[in-house]
Amino acid sequence: MGCELVVFDNDGVLVDSEPISNRILAEYLSELGHPTSYEESIERYMGSAVHSIHDSVRERSGRELPTDFDEVFHGRVFEAFREELEPVDGVAEVLLALREAGVEYCLASSGSHERIRVALRKTGLEKFFPEGALFSADDVGRGKPAPDLFLHAAAVRGVQAEECVVVEDSPAGVQAARSAGMDVLGFCAMTPRERLGGARACFSEMAELPGLLGLGSE
Q1: CA gap 207, 6 in Å, rounded
Q2: DSSP bridge partners of 15
Q3: Tally of helices (H runs) and strands (E runs) in the chain
Q4: Which residues contact residue 74 at a Cβ distance below 8 angstroms, ignoring those fewer than 6 apart?
Q5: DSSP letters along 178-198, please?
Q6: Cα-Cα-Cα-Cα dihedral sign, residues 65, 71, 76, 82
Q7: pLDDT tens, 13-72?
Q8: Distance (Å, rounded) from C-alpha 71 to C-alpha 156?
């Protein structure tokens, strides 16, 4: 495949954060008068940058979210992460396999740098991602589903888009990777395979990923 760089999404791919953050988002939006179920939060917002929440609420209700929405939401999420967050099962072994095989990898997330660091510290994955291997939607003008974040990560790492393989678990992330001209593998542990239809292949267990990357499997 000519893979020179594996680009990991964070939430739902490296850390098992989507159940936590979408539970909190649904509760907070409902509290603000925008009734939202956990399932609706997953369907509408999973994998998207936070500005997409503002856009969606504005389009659906004609109302703006409070100016402190991001601060309050992230504060609640961080508090829950520090208590509940765990790594995705098997992902540490995948990162070790990539390191041992000499395959370059990085992280590109719709979340803020602060959110990324909180999550990686809590789950023990921080050691795999030094400075220069972390990219956030904060770094670009538009988050997923726009391709900007993935293109930025590839440019900083000195790799052509067609030499990248993105690992994503959301429709927005798959769309962003495809728009960037990158190969994409869909992690469907939480997301139905049909919603990741733009991916070259889908997998539900991290143990499957090395084989899909051409590294063989245990």
Answers
A1: 16
A2: 11, 87
A3: 9, 6
A4: 112, 114, 115
A5: HHTT-EEEEE-SSS-GGGGTT
A6: positive
A7: 999 998 999 999 999 999 999 999 999 998 898 877 788 899 999 999 999 999 999 999
A8: 29
Q: How far apart are CA 167 and CA 133, in angstroms?
A: 15
Q: What value does the CA radius of gyration of the chain take, rounded to a whole number of Å?
A: 17
Structure token digits, residue 133 = 């291997």
pLDDT of residue 216: 59
Is the CB of residue 202 less than 8 Å from the CB of residue 196?
yes
Helix (H, G, I), strand (E, B) or coil at 159: coil
Of 118, 193, 158, the C-alpha closest to 4 is: 158
Which H, E and C letters describe 50-103, residue by residue?
HHHHHHHHHHHHCCCCCCCHHHHHHHHHHHHHHHHCCECCCHHHHHHHHHHHCC
Amino acid symbol at 35: P
Other residues' Cβ atoms within 10 Å of the Cβ of residue 184: 25
Give the pLDDT confidence of 139-177 residue by residue, as tens digits.
998 888 999 999 999 999 999 999 999 999 999 999 999
CA angle 15, 169, 95 (to 5 degrees): 50
Q: Kind and range of the H or E element at 135?
A: strand 134-136
The residues that bridge with 7 in the sheet, in sequence order, are 106, 166
Q: What are phi and psi of 36, to 5 degrees?
A: -140, 130
Max Cα-Cα span within the chain: 52
Q: Which two tokens stand for residue 114?
A: 């602060």
